[in-house]
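Q: Here's a chain of 380 amino acids. Please give me its 3D structure as tokens.
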Amino acid sequence: MAASEHFTSTISAGDRTASRNDSISTRYYRLNQKYLFLEASIDALTCSLGVLIGSLLPKAIFSSRRSISLGTIAAISLVSGLLSTSISWRANACQRSWNPLRIHNTELALRLTVQSILFFGVFSYLASMTIDLESLIVILILLPVLLINQKLILDFLLNEIYLSKRHTSSKQSFSDGPHVKVQELSYPLTFNTSRLHVALKRLIDLFISFVLLLSLLPLFLLISLIIWIDSTGPIFFVQKRVGKKGKIFHIYKFRSMYYDSPHYDLSPIKPSDCRITRIGRLLRKTSFDELPQLINVLLGEMSLVGPRPEMPFIVDGYTHHHRQRLLVTPGITGLWQLSADRTAPIHKNLHYDFHYIQNQTFFMDLAILIHTLFFAARGV
């Protein structure tokens, strides 16, 4: 009888624990939905305010006469902001998902800016209002800055409220949401295969790589000269890598290690690695050693943004789900390259690549490129 009572009490305790966990999950879901609605509402107001200020500021500075009333401009700005946010909401662009370095905030800010400008242009045309080029430039610069700063402030405030309600000192923040682990992702991976997305991504790769190769030619010559003076060996480091669908290609880099170092080995993770040359430490710190990969992008072997290509001997040890990172074209930069885990092996941090593969968009690529510029400028 005692054993039966103990078993019954154990089951009851387990049921109560499960019920309590379900209740907490339900409350978190409802709180998260309220937060998302609040964030979308504030996004709409920020977009409207940014468009309004951007359209009026050049006229105020240059004392241009407005061809339409302030009320009409305010109404057009409000409708543009509301429609832009509504479209992003319906496309689930406003839904919070894990990714490092607040890439989501930048991606959403860029998306809302472009959509708001398009709507503002359409409604201005219908209202017979002329849009100055200066106004468009101001909106294009001002609106992303307003949106990103608004999100940083909102994240901070709601995170403080959330933690105070939980009465915990946990570092897990409400705004970050649950971290995505590899096992939580759906298999097989699904990703954007629309012809428009693929064509647009390739067109941008071609244009940017061609322009950068031409404009950075003097820097290429200077780096080549310094490498030649610093140590014996070739200027460029050429190595076989595995690309899309397992295709082997040759990747190009400025040589940052001594010529007698093993050609195929795990990459250095510390600047003090004895294989790295003096100039190599600076090249790696500024990411200048990666610049020759623009040639790979021009040839179509790589993209500006995508999973980092691995060496063949590492890919040989891939499991089936590891190989799914080969579904897309590898890139120069990406989520993993910008994360704090970049010092660890790529194949041990697959959630970055899988998250990108499943969520890649034009605006995410643009956000990653912008973060990469700031990342390289800091010399991290």
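Q: Can you summarize the key feature?
A: The first helix runs from residue 2 to 61.
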